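Onboarding guide, step 5: your first structure request.
Type a short instruction followed by the sequence, for example:

Predict the 3D structure of this protein.
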Amino acid sequence: MAPPSILQRCSAINQAIGVLLERGRTPDAAHQALARLANFGRTDLYDAAEYLLRDLADHHPTDEGAPTAA
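The system replies with structure tokens like these:
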């Protein structure tokens, strides 16, 4: 499998930040939360975002399989 493109990486990060915004975080707080998740997992923002989105999809599946914010 090819590595994700810059556009795919940015899209995943923005989607994860959007989910955090929907849950009441400010833009700065959402970015900081994603950065903390990346730091905790010793990974980058993209991998942290993918983890967050996958975790949401596992716990809140929709008909299309896309993650939703509860």
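Each response can be followed by summary notes, for example: Confidence is low (pLDDT under 50) at residues 63-70.
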